[in-house]
## 1
Amino acid sequence: MQEMQSFIAQIKNSQTYQRLALLYKLGRDFHGAKTTYELIQELRSTHLTEQQLLTTLRQHQEISQFKQQLTAQVNLGPDEIGLICAYGIGDTYFVCALAQQISAIHGQARIVVVVKPEHSDIPDLFQKHIARKVTLDRTVLAKICDSVDLIREFSHLAPGQLFFAHPRARLGMQLDILGYKEIHLVDLYRVLFSLKPDRPLLQPAVTEAAWASARQRFQEYEFPEKRTVLLSPEATSTGILSETLWQAIAEYFCDRGYKVILLVSPNSYFLLPGLPRVYFPLSEAIPFTELCGTVISLRSGFCDLIATAQTNLVVLYPDQAFHTGTVYTCASLRLMQLSSSAQEIIVSDDTSPEQVLNQLSSSQTATAPTI
């Protein structure tokens, strides 16, 4: 650090061409010659002032320091690949479910998954194929998401390296290819990791401890087993559906003797009178929903997580554009082959609750209709 400050002091008192030469040495020693050379070419063409030059230097210094700190925290061995999972439940699930395939094409490298605290249970569903997990504060991971420069720093997939495990790491603006000619989310993750198109996802394995905990929790709530309907009306990446629709669904099942419960975030604005809210950790999601018997959910990462659960799963897809396709074409559980039994319903703006209820009472194996 003292040497870095000395370089900056020299830059402040030098002429423009000298500053550029020192900047090159600074970059070679602290950041990487290739990146700095590109920066020098940009500086020559834009004629940055000394203050602007120093700001740029500070930014590069911060990036270098952040990378060093994160690398030290994860502490990868030479035979370990670190996968940074900084986005949603579904994204983390896809990465973990492809862990075996990623390891196989990198000489059976050990897979280390870096996750947010709230997603730390997801790697446990694939613990036979994930060597270890590292939990970091969500603000640390969010900083990478917000910086193209940081994403670039973690874009090399190889043993001994940290890799930003999201399509943005390689595809950039090509994310808009999602939905084109039936290209879906799992396809993008296979491309991200250079996997063949037919490479399967691992099946999650719930531990006996998670099953026992879920059963105890379910009994404490005093819900009837296989006669409980879990409603999950929230998502972060898709549009919402009206409370009127959810209320109609709740009444439909209540009138038929089911217990209807609500899964929403702790600070949710979403209120349905008379419905109890429930909470369970992600490790218990599969057993808890199997004990319920029926789940009706807005398309979200939660759907990916419970796609293999032995439960009556109904997924509602808002009929809206999503990248080059729609929410359904980009993220259908059936199209992605995450589930062959889920009932999928596309809900447009003019869809009435009665039309949705008619679909709920129809065959559970029908392909997704637009209603």
## 2
Amino acid sequence: MAFNKATRQNFLRAPTIDYSAGDTRVSRVPPVGLLKRIILLFTGTMTITLGGGTAALGAEAPWSLVNRLRLTANGNTALFDTGGYGGMIASLFAAYGYSGVGGRPRVPDSATVPGPAATAMSAANFAAGVSAGANTWRFGWEIPLGLSDDWRDPIGLILAAAPDTVLQLEVTWGATLYSTVASRNTPILTTGAATAALTAASIIPFIEFFTVPALEADYPDLRRIHTWQELGPQPIAAVGDQDVVMPRGNTLMRIVHNVWTNSTPDGTNVSDFELRFNQNEVPIKVTRQMQAYLARERYVRDLPDGLYAHDLWNSGTPRDAVNTLNLNDVTSRVTIGAGATIAGTSDIRTLIEQSILLTGAVAGSA
């Protein structure tokens, strides 16, 4: 009997993670079944006092309320390790699926940017107002682990029920709610004497898992894990080529660059992109316009400003994925055009999605 006939889907609420500015809070993932993903739902009240000034959402708000999201196994293996906005990026691509079928956006979408006025998403799913007075904030992230939502047996599931597996969710809250200076880490940009205060705020994690089949012969493949990792920030010192070196040893599925120049997401001055192996092999060499065309074709929407992706898993198969184990180097080159202003926050943060083949004892194996 195949795995999909020997299991069923389950959802379970995990312990709440309360807001505490600048602190890291930990939630133990319940040791149940085969873990597929974790949904993190934020709710809080943001009270804005204008005092003659103004308040607006920061460019990476509301997800920038969180500085770091981490899911670790046994204290030392990071299955998911991103910033708050990086977590939104991983959620965005998880929504496109792993079967070569795109177009299920789970975050608001205007033409190019997530935002509260962007789509028909209800206030029950997304709210991040900055009007004077009390504003309810609601939004979420997804930590994706298992691949495939179709008839195929998934890979990347974690046997959370194994006695030797301890999964821990860590949330590091941002230390600053508002500032008069734009930055990646400040949720609210203010002028004058405007202030913001966050109360009754927390994240409720929901665990999606599958029951463990009665027969070990019906288990899915537990030899591979699926991870997201955020690299950087890598400073941009001048216009021209910016080479981001990829870690080696695993299989690259997606590379997503989040580019800022002059303290704002740069959707206009990035000109060209290359993916290079062993210095002289270049399987991808495209312009910004081609990046935009591929995003619309693959995902039925534009990516947020400043995001550029090499999607090596868009076919839903390992066909284009890059096994870096036997490569001397893997570099993703981003070219910043001469029209860019390199000032303030000018850097690249890079999200990498990988499939990792476990060696020796399989973590979480029965």
## 3
Amino acid sequence: MKFFRAEKKIQKVQKETIVQLRRNRVFRGVGRNRGISDKASISPEKRLILKGNFRSKVASSASGCSWWMSAYFLLWGIFISVFVYAIFFSPLLRIDQQELPFTTTVAPSIIEKNINDFLSGYSWRVLPNDSYVVAFFRRKQFDQMLSDRFPSLRSVSTRVIFPKSISVSIEERTLALISCSGGPCFLIDEHGVAYDDSVEMVSSFDIMTPITLVDDSTKLIVYGEVLFSEEFLQFASESRRRLFAEFGVSVSSKAKTSSRISNEIRFVTMDGWELWLSGDIALDKSLRTLHAFFAKMISEEERKNLLYIDMRTESRVFYRVSEDNQNDGEGDVEISEESGVFEKSTPSETKEKAKKDKKKK
């Protein structure tokens, strides 16, 4: 009996839950209508009270949000202000230390003055130029300014080191010679590039004075143009140095060439005679030939009577001698390096020999 009673109770509970679910689904709209009817039954006085309470709640929540937003933006404003002051106006990030290299073409004091001028003043009339951030973003502008102002500087590189140091690295050009051709003279660096105007033409017998090479072709020089090869520049400077060191012959710093592509140079010695050399012939070979020529053909006293020595042809020396300011002797000497024999001939003999050589060919 108890078993059947428990089973009936379970069935009853299941029916009630099923009916309740169905009732909720079916009569959901009825509940809504009842709620609307309940609101409609509220008196106007109560309705005003309810509206006032709702508005007060909304106003209190809005005032709370506005206070928090104000505090939020205030904190952000303080943070941004402190950050801007720290990176732009703080004395802890002001550039006050300089690292400069030793330079020979431009005095270090002049470079230091340019750096001080670069760091002085303000950008956009507000930001100081000596602050770390402003100097960091303007460093390329400083490199370009120094390169334009001093052409003898091949490259300039500036580093701004945290927190308040600036370092400048400079690569200088090496002056090889001064070239003049139908216009203003130009300075030529070790790579043969014309990089700056020369104020005056220098003529000196001092071995340390750079060579001034005058081009007889009078072809104008263009800024930044490559005029001479590095080999020719080395040949010109080395030949002048070795002439003085090995022969005691001082040559003027002012020399000539027929054209910049001829690869030839004509020196003027202190005694007044000229020495013509070619860069196409090895300098060692030319100097050995000259040494043999001086030893066997021309004494040291007779050098004063020379007008020129032309060594632009391999294994040949053309020369001209003057006595009592009258030209009375000229010719050429052919030199055999194997036997060391000199064969002297007059210009007419030289021409005839050249004709014979051509016929044989």
